[in-house]
Design goal:
two-stranded antiparallel ribbon, 2 strands, 61 residues, globular, 7% strand, single chain, mainly alpha, 2 helices
Length: 61
C-alpha cells in the first residue's frame, strides 16, 4: 500500500517529532502496520465522505 503525505501532514509530523521524539517508534510501527494491513481493527480505518470519498482515514488514538 502507498502511504501519501501532504505538505501539511509532513510539516505536522516534523513538528511532532521535534516536540516528542520518543513517539517516533510508535508512529513508525503504526505506519508499518498500515502498509501491511490497512484495515486492521486497531487502526480504525474508515472511508471519508463527500468530495474525498475515494480516500480512507486512519484514527490514531
Amino acid at each position: 500500500m502507498k502511504i501519501g503525505w501532504t505538505p501539511k501532514s509532513l510539516r505536522a509530523f516534523k513538528r511532532l517529532m521535534r516536540k516528542n521524539p520518543n513517539l517516533r517508534p510508535l508512529i513508525e510501527q503504526t505506519l508499518r502496520q498500515l502498509a501491511e494491513d490497512p484495515f486492521h481493527p486497531t487502526l480504525h480505518t474508515h472511508k471519508i465522505k463527500g468530495d474525498l470519498s475515494n480516500i480512507y482515514m486512519v484514527m490514531f488514538n
